[in-house]
Amino acid sequence: MANPLGALLVLFGAGFLAANLLLLNDYLAFRRRRPGALLTWAVPRPAASGWSTGIALGLGLVILYKLLVLGWPPGQVFGEAMMFAYYGVMLRIGARVERGFYRDGLWLNRRFVKYRDITGLTWREDPKLALVIVAGRQQRAGRLNVPPAHYGEARRLLRDRIQSHQLHVQRSPIDLGGHDEREDV
Question: Which of 59, 100, 135, 138 has its CA 20 to 30 A from that of 124?
Answer without folding.
Answer: 138
